[in-house]
Please model this.
Amino acid sequence: MEQGSILIVGVGGIGCQWSGGAHDKCQQMADLLMVDADESSFTSEHEAHCLHLDASGSARGAAALPNLAAHRLNEGITNISALLEKSELVILLTALGGGTGSGATAEIAAKSRESGSLVISIVGIPFAEQPLRCAIAEKALPPIEINSDLCILVSLERLAWQARHRNSDWKLGSEWIGELIEGLVTTLARVGKMNLDLMDLRTVIGRPGNATLIVGNGTTDDPEEVVRMARNSPLSEISADGAKGCLIQVEGGPDMTLGHLNMVSEAFVSTLDNDCQVILGARASEDMAGRLRLVAVVSGL
Ligand SMILES: Nc1nc2c(ncn2[C@@H]2O[C@H](COP(=O)(O)OP(=O)(O)OP(=O)(O)O)[C@@H](O)[C@H]2O)c(=O)[nH]1
Ligand SMILES: [Mg+2]
Model:
């Protein structure tokens, strides 16, 4: 895949934070676009294309008004159409329940699709104790799903729980979001031990039913732990059992052997449907020495 053909897009406050963190991990391979009504999302620490949706100049959020955000997006969309057009894969990140993310994401997905991109959306669902935000999210989700090739729901509840265990901040994606995207982008953009491309991804994603992304981490001493962790995927309510399609990327250091690779992938695949279509990729890099990571897209759930 050519450089610049993967675009990571953050929409709204949380979406911008997630996308910045994710892009940090794969800057060479993807472009970054941040879309928000609140200018403070555009920090100078990230090299990003920015679309500021605040037409009124008050520089604050869309004050939980999705319609306002959608309207502002329509006024600004021409500024990003060239960027969307040159992308082959658009990865959208947002958390629903506020104004900007809930109002603007579906239209960005639709425009990306129109210009021929494969669209993967990673969407945060608000905490159950915030009924008003949940109601906004419920309304905002269907058009995002319709306009995405793959829509991955992330429960903020689970993310926050995971973040506490990891001693990290859920607002930054508790590192999971970054790892998921890094895994996905590396799978697609870099030449690993085996090659994967967008057609493969389309095949796996094209399965009817739900889909989810999974990450497991561990060390080469204990490959089983990587699979256990992956199986307890904390990011959605969906279990991967019985999946019909699966794209797996196993990452390790120069010390990763074919034995490690087989162990991790076979143990994971054994939990999926017998006829599951599996695409396996692997990558070794110096900074993963002694460690193993499994990143998987499972579909047809
Ligand atoms: N509990 C909690 N939830 C939060 C917090 N910040 C964001 N969220 C959740 O994340 C969702 C999205 O928040 P943001 O990304 O800030 O929303 P936005 O799209 O920027 O929306 P506007 O600022 O209204 O334009 C909200 O609906 C909340 O469910 C927080 O500080 N505490
Ligand atoms: Mg905001």
